[in-house]
Amino acid sequence: MKFFTTALVLFLAFPALSQEKKIVPPDFPTHRFEEFAEGVHFITGTGTVFVQSNAMMIEGDRDVLVIDSHVTPAAAEALLKAVRSITDKPVRYLANSHYHFDHAHGNQAFPEGVDIIGHEYTREKLLGDVLSENTFLSFTQGIPEDLKKLKAQLDATSGSRKDTLQRRYDVQAAHLKSLKDTIPTPPNVTFDSKMSMHYGGREIQFLFLGRGHTGGDVVVYLPKEGFVFTGDLMLPFLSYMGDGFVDEWPATLERLKALDINTIFPGHGGPIKGKQAITNFQGYLTDLWTRTVEAKKSGLSAMEAAEKIDMTDHKANFRQIQKPGVDPRAVIRIYNRIDSGQK
What is the 3 state secondary structure string of the chain? Predict the structure, then answer.
């Protein structure tokens, strides 16, 4: 069974919820900045450069903090250029929500002297051989073949459709080249559970609430505004679980719910208002763990279980779910967690 998901179709696009915000500038080619409070910008890509993840920028009095560096050095360079279109303040800090390539492999493009903030686990992983790990490979190995298929479509197409395909091809070809230029670069400022900054007239809390999407997820919390940037710990749709701690994730999310928050800014997709989506995801995770444990006890292999596990009772909350079956990488991870005694 071929179960890797390539960068072409990796994440669903969900529009931002309507709320008080300011779009600046409206026509910057690579990034869209939404200012939800003074100096607090939620950043998404426009599609002209493959960025693969959201980012955030918080302005201080003299410089700025950026959260997450995108998927490649080229994507990060585009982000830095876009930041300079918003403010002439230099980037002084970069925070990583977690170690995954689509959020941290732009680190190397940030200027010398920028402090990179992250969990100790994130530093440990980025000092290791992450380019050989299944997560990176499963999301990138299929890109060359997809480019071949896209090229064949290009050759057989004409008119305006050809222009659209050409833009897609150019973006993905540039992305593939930049993937090969990546040198994983770890945080140089690390913490274990909590770190605070008083910056630009507000408190910024960097919190490790427990294991979930990875072993070192950091949420960036602004108590004054009730904002929290969650990376992939909490998305408006199902998160990738191939490195997850599915059995611990619901409790971690319960600690997230305990914060005084009104808006969640996720690593992919649009902002989430309120906490009901957290409860919905907790329910999914709990049921996935229980059903996967039952499948293993019944003697099914991980691949067999991935085909048979039925999560359609959650499809009202997660539109990705159309029929029985779940991502095999999630099931393999859960099986490995069970076999290791959930360490």
Answer: CCCCCCHHHCCCCCCCCCCCCEECCCCCCCEEEEEEECCEEEEEECCCCCCCCCEEEEECCCCEEEECCCCCHHHHHHHHHHHHHHCCCCEEEEECCCCCHHHHCCHHHCCCCCEEEEEHHHHHHHHCCHHHCHHHHHHHCCHHHHHHHHHHHHHCCCCHHHHHHHHHHHHHHHHHHHHCCCCCCCCCEEECCEEEEEECCEEEEEECCCCCCCCCCCEEEECCCCEEEEECCCCCCCCCCCCCCCCCHHHHHHHHHCCCCCEEEECCCCCEECCHHHHHHHHHHHHHHHHHHHHHHCCCCHHHHHHHCCCHHHCCCCCCCCCCCCCHHHHHHHHHHHHCCCC
Q: Is the distance from CB of 79 to CB of 50 less than 8 angstroms? A: no
Residue 165 lies in a domain: yes
3 within domain boundaries: no
Determine, yes or no, domain membership for 160.
Answer: yes
Q: Are 98 and 104 in contact (CB under 8 A)?
A: yes
Distance (Å, rounded) from C-alpha 270 to C-alpha 275?
A: 14
Is this model's pTM higher than 0.85 or not? yes
Cα atoms in the 13 Å half-sphere on the side-chain side of 17: 11
Residue 184: CB atoms within 10 Å: 18
pLDDT digits (tens, 9 = 90+) for 281-324: 999 999 999 999 999 999 999 999 999 999 999 999 999 999 99
Which residue range is the domain that position 141 belongs to? 136-169
| Digit-coded pLDDT (tens) for 75-123 | 999 999 999 999 999 999 999 999 999 999 999 999 999 999 999 999 9
Task: Determine contact, residues 74/84, Cβ cutoff 8 Å.
Answer: no
CB within 8 Å of 121: residues ≥ 6 apart: 99, 214, 215, 216
Classify residue 131: in a domain, yes or no: no
Give the up-direction half-sphere exposure of residue 127: CA atoms within 13 A in the CB hemisphere: 9
How many domains, the chain?
1
